[in-house]
Amino acid sequence: MAVFLQSLISGVLIGGVYALIGIGLTLIFGVMRVINFAHGDIMMVGMYLTYLLFTLMGVDPFVSVLISFPLMFFFGGFLQKVFINRVLNAVAQNQILLTIGLGLVMSNTVMLIFTSDYKILTTSYSSSTIQVGGGVSISTPLLVSFLITAVITAALGWFLLKTDTGQAIRATAQDRDAAQLMGINVSRMSVIAFGLGAALAGTAGALISPTYYIFPQVGGTFTLKAFVITVLGGMGSVVGATLGGILIGITESMSAVYISSGWKDVVVFVLFLLVLLFKPSGLMGKSRT
Amino acid sequence: MNKRMLKAAIGLIVLAGLLVVPRFVESPYALHMMILLFLSVSQGQSWNILGGYAGQYSVGHAAYFGVGAYTTMMLMYSKQVAPWVGVWAGVAAVIAVALVIGSICFRLRGPYFVLASIAVAEIMRLSAINLTTLTNGAEGILVTEIPAFKIGERVVTDFLTKVPFYYIGLFLALLTLAIAYWVQHSKLGYYFQAIREDQDAAHSLGIHISVYKNIGLVISAVLTSLAGSFYGIYVGFVDPPTVLGLDVSVQIMLICIIGGMGTIWGPVLGSLLLVPLSEALRSNMITEGLVKIGLVSADSKVGLFLKENLAHAHVLIYGILVVLVILFMPDGLMGFVKKLASRRKREAA
């Protein structure tokens, strides 16, 4: 029972970070109908940013979120304005290829600068845990990152539901043409959405850097995970992505414990294929048209 | 002499030239480059049949490349099965895999198909890592000795030089070219193109969508598997990232996309650009060239940096090329060439 509870808790905690990555991807897809294959690589850039801030200036990874969030927002906005914006009306295949290309450029540029060595960001609390009784313990960095995730998700929810810009973004996602007719500056909303998506991915990168290896090719796995999460939750649904992230976190940690850690990603991908086959609209998505 | 005959004549001359190359070229490095070129053409062309003609963008072709390579190598390694027999076991395995993948993935369209194809290839890669008793796991399989190929008692080749690989590679490249040509000019090819242009319209015309998609997938997968087996035998080593990784899938499709999708010569053009480029980067030729023409000095900071790092940069160049091609030549090099040609024709008229 203790093992079960333990893996459930760590699944939920890591799932919170996955949710951030998924929300970013789903936001971009919702507003632009572009599947961002560079999403994991953007997260990787966030990880290296955190690493730099930590090693050069001694900024704590969790505090560095305050710096990396706006920086990554501008980075995302720049990517949208210079590259993605040109293919918004192109066939889906070209959009996918463009983002794959951008991802390759990012990961290989980082590799040229930092080499492909694994970097570890060791903080005083990297391996500290909190005992909750019953033989169950919680990793401190994971708990802190989950709390930060929860705050950010809540803030994002408030932004999307209550502010004018947020409502404009949601309107653009719902019907781009109608939103434009209503006088919403849809191209600006696209820049903001991509910026937010990149900022969320970068933040996720910052949050996992105390507990994860940092290397240039780390993005690929996370891009795939982000897809699984968004498809599971329903493409374009923020609530769905949050649920999907936590569900994938739990699935991973459960299958690592009860099957084997080597097969845990296979379990996730099989689950993904099953969802694609039997409920392609996902948990919270409306049916595809 | 009309245009068609001229084309055929040029084709025959090039072919004859390629056939006699090993008689005059002794440098193993030059032959190695040609073999890489043939391999790249057959990879790109195999992808082209499904991705270019039928419009099904698979980003998971590493699955077929890797399963072909692994089956042949595993049989050779643990059961001493000769590679020319093992290749067909690889083909059989790949057909089985392709039909399973097809029945799952072809229910999905557009981006969902792309995602499913990636997921399947990743499942294959992770399985190759985890099924250690079969595949040797992350260590990979190393087979350095290939048995001599005999007909009766006569030894046809003992695979000690690069020459037999040259001819096998050439044959493979020509085979994929011929099949692509046949696909383009047959009813099958028209069905593929109809599906690519508008799936619903094709369906309403009575084309059985899933049957034809699966036919396209099986042709493409079998050819990719042959290329994979050839790669495995030629290099003598396979491991999960080099034959099953996501990079492999991306590189296979890039050959075709940079060259031009849905055209016979696109993958050839793409290979002619990408293979020498990545080889030049890998062997540090570009840095040496820059030093030679005096742009950077060999022992300056920049020179040392380039020497150290440019060898790893070929994927970066791939990335930059893709971005440029998508933004400025969405139809690939072939589309660009055709546009230039038609402009010239118009100006002449």
Overview of the molecule:
The complex is a heterodimer of chains A (289) and B (349). Chain A is mainly alpha-helical and 289 residues long. Chain A has a single domain (2-278), classed as Orthogonal Bundle (ABC transporter involved in vitamin B12 uptake, BtuC), CATH 1.10.3470. Chain A has helices at residues 2-32, 39-57, 61-82, 92-114, 140-162, 164-174, 176-181, 186-208, 219-233, 238-258, 264-278, and strands at residues 129-133, 136-139. In chain A, strand 1 and strand 2 (136-139) form a beta hairpin. In chain A, helix 1 packs antiparallel against helix 8 (186-208), helix 1 (2-32) runs antiparallel to helix 10 and helix 2 runs parallel beside helix 4. In chain B, the strands form two sheets. Chain B has a two-stranded antiparallel ribbon. In chain B, strand 2 and strand 3 (154-157) form a beta hairpin. Chain B starts with a helix and ends with a helix. The A-B interface holds A 35, 83, 86-87, 90, 92-94, 96-98, 100-105, 108-109, 111-112, 116, 220, 224, 227-228, 231, 260, 262-263, 265-266, 269-270, 272-273, 276-277, 280 and B 57, 59, 104, 107-108, 110-112, 114-116, 118-120, 122-123, 126-127, 129-130, 246, 250, 253, 257, 309, 312-313, 315-316, 318-323, 326-327, 330.
